[in-house]
Design goal:
55 residues, mainly alpha
Length: 55
Amino acid sequence: MPGKQKDRSPMPMSGAGLMRFFEDETHGVKIRPQYVVLASIMLMGTVILAHVLFG
């Protein structure tokens, strides 16, 4: 609406204004980043081990 003041401060410029982070909480599965890194390392190890044993 024109003339209505925003109750939030403006977002800082990042990437020439092309990127904006979500302010609202989204619903869905929440996984800690440590678990994602650990799972990817375990998957890489499994693939390497399978390649060495069966390749």
